[in-house]
Structures are given as structure tokens and as C-alpha cells.
Amino acid sequence: MDQEVYEILGITDNEHFRESELVKSLGIYGRNGIIDSGELYIEGDLKMTKIVSFINLKGGVGKTTVTVNIASILAQKYGYKVLVVDLDPQTNATVSLISQEHWQERSRAKQTLYDMFYDLLHNEKNFNINSAILKNVSDIDNLALLPSSLDLVQIQDNIPEISNKEYINFVDVLANQLERVKAQYDYILIDCPPNLGAITLNGINISDYYIIPTVPDILSKIGINLILNRIDQFVEKKHSCNIKLAGLIFTKVDTRTNLHASTKRELRDTEELEALVFENEMPTRISIAEAPVDSRPHVNSSTARSKSDYRATHQLIVDITDEFIEKIEAMEE
Ligand SMILES: Nc1ncnc2c1ncn2[C@@H]1O[C@H](COP(=O)(O)OP(=O)(O)OP(=O)(O)O)[C@@H](O)[C@H]1O
Ligand SMILES: [Mg+2]
């Protein structure tokens, strides 16, 4: 469809698209706005859901912290509709946004990502994407969460038993489920575990972009090359996957060490990375480390707010989020 037709239908942006009588009457909308039930294609100027994975094969580098905090600012400050998908059995993103009790209740109700995969493996139908997604989490309007479960680790262990053909299907499980709800969101941010197992590949598979959060230490260069190669290999095999690197964020930066400063310089000077490295970085801050105590992101955690570094750190997170929006928009052009 071209712009004129959108205008006749009163569709000027994502919100109007979702709310339009046209979409409501057809009911279903698919990847990049293609309406599945007909030949009608919405593309071009209309802005669509962007799916972004946060990946590093190294553990503890700040993937979850960056994901949850960018998501919260996108929703709280800018009013974007944001879904956080917690693909990690460690459930860190989940418990950074909802309480342990709430998570356990969702687990008992069989409405976590574990149940999504379990249903497929055992031919059951307990999981329902619409009831699994929790809306307005951490008291932030427009912030939604698809929670993980500690049990997800069992699924990862069971996958080698599945035949190769089924393995291919297995990588599409999340895609098939999210297809039903995707158009409700401006951004879907996926917090990945520190591996590229089949569960993580479910996230990579549907992502338009990925961001690498990394501590600028001595091993980070090797780690980054490994991720780039492994993702390239996956994209070569899985032709429907179009994931592209959108940025690299320095995390847990210690401004006192020369090592961090020299590694940052080196990575910023690397030809294929220089345009992708975020200007803004996430230093080590006490209010960031302590925010999850309240099961809330930094922006509205009372523990974070009680720390003297809160204001300055909040501004850093906003700056990173602004740059995130810029980087993703630049990729779309
Ligand atoms: N900028 C920061 N300042 C202070 N602490 C931080 C910062 N970023 C992350 N941390 C802390 O470091 C630890 C690891 O961070 P996080 O869980 O975000 O890493 P991760 O890469 O998601 O780890 P994993 O690989 O286990 O999923 C957490 O305790 C977190 O609170
Ligand atoms: Mg994590």
C-alpha cells in the first residue's frame, strides 16, 4: 500500500495502524505489517515493531541490566509500547521487573516461556501468549514482560534428543507465538542467556537487530569476534533470519582503570565497529546494581532512588536509550 491509501484509512502511525477498523476487521497482522489473511501489504513509511536481542556469550557483562533499563525508559519516558522477552533460565530480567511471588504464580499457572517450549515437546496446550504476557509491569504503563522460568534449563537439556528436522522447527517456536502479538509493540527487547543454544536461537531468529553489551576488558575483543562469527553462521543457515548488528555498548566501565580506557579506544578504532560503538556508556554504579532489589528497573526503584548517584545515573540511562533509538532508526534507513 502506498502513503495515500494509509491516509484514506486514517493510518498515520503504528498506533493508528493497530487501532484502525481495517486491522480490527481483519484481525491478524504479521511480520512487518503484512496482513496474513489477504494480499494487503502495509510497508514503506509506516513504522513497525523492531525486535532487538541483547547478546554476549560471556556471563555477567550487563546484558540484563542494559535490556531492562533501556526498555523501561522507552516505555516510561517516551511512551513506546515495549515487550521484554526473558529468554534466560536464570530469570534475571523477569525478577528485575516482577516480584518472586508473582513469577512463581505465573510458573504455577503454566504461563512462562518454559511452558511455551514444554507444550511443543509434549504436545500439550497450556501456554497462551496473551495470558503469559504481563502488562504494565513495575508500574510502568506500556512496559510488558514475557517471563522466563528456572525450569527452562530442562528444555535446553532435552533439545539434543530432538531430531534435526524438529530442531529447525524448535527454533521457530517463539516466532510462531510472537507473531500473534507482535504488532501491539513498538519494540520487543530480548534478554538472551550467555550462550547460543536452541532457546537463544529462537530469539536471534526473529530479531531485526542485536546489540552487544560488553565490559571493555582484555578478553572482550575475542568475545565480540566469536559472537559476530556465530551469528553470521546462523544467518547463513537460516535464510529467513535477517538479524544485523546495531550496536555495542560498554558496560560496567571502571573509569579508574587504564585497561578499560585502552580497550575502549581499541574497539572504537576497529574499522567494522567504530560506527556501531555507543558514545554513551554504562559505568559501574551502585544504584544500578541495587535497583533489582525492588524488582524494578532503575527509573522507579526506591532503593536506586535513595542512592546519591541516582540522578546522574538516570541521565546516563536516558542518554543510552536515546542513542539506542538513534542507532536502530539509522539501521532502518
Ligand atoms: N553498570 C553497572 N553498575 C553496577 N553493577 C552492574 C552494572 N551492570 C551490571 N551490574 C551488575 O552485574 C551483575 C551482572 O549483570 P547482568 O545480570 O546485567 O549481566 P548479564 O550479562 O545479564 O549476566 P548473565 O550472563 O548471567 O545473564 C548484576 O549483579 C548486576 O546488578
Ligand atoms: Mg542476564
Structural write-up:
By secondary structure, the protein is an alpha/beta fold. It has 17 helices and 6 strands. Helix 13 links the parallel strand 5 and strand 6. It is globular. The relative contact order is 0.15. It binds adenosine-5'-triphosphate and magnesium ion. Adenosine-5'-triphosphate binds next to helix 4 and helix 15.
The CATH topology label of the largest domain is Rossmann fold
SSE series? HHHEHEHHHHEHHHEHEHEHHHH
The low-pLDDT segments are: 26-45
- Within CATH, the superfamily of the largest domain carries the name P-loop containing nucleotide triphosphate hydrolases
| Integer tally of domains | 2
Number of strands: 6
Write down the overall geometry: globular
In the CATH classification, which architecture of the largest domain applies? 3-Layer(aba) Sandwich
Strand content: 5-15%
- SSE class: alpha/beta
Lateral strand order in the biggest sheet: 3-2-4-1-5-6
Radius of gyration: 20 Å
Bound molecules: adenosine-5'-triphosphate, magnesium ion
Summarize the structure.
The protein has 333 residues and is of the alpha/beta class.
Question: Can you lay out the helices and strands and say which pair or pack?
Answer:
Elements lengths: L2 H6 L5 H6 L1 H6 L23 E5 L8 H14 L5 E5 L5 H6 L2 H9 L4 H10 L6 H4 L10 E4 L5 H7 L5 H7 L2 H6 L8 E5 L6 H9 L2 E6 L5 H18 L6 E7 L7 H11 L17 H5 L11 H4 L4 H23 L1
Parallel strand pairs: 1-4, 1-5, 2-3, 2-4, 5-6
Helix pairs in contact: 4-17
The chain binds adenosine-5'-triphosphate and magnesium ion (MG).
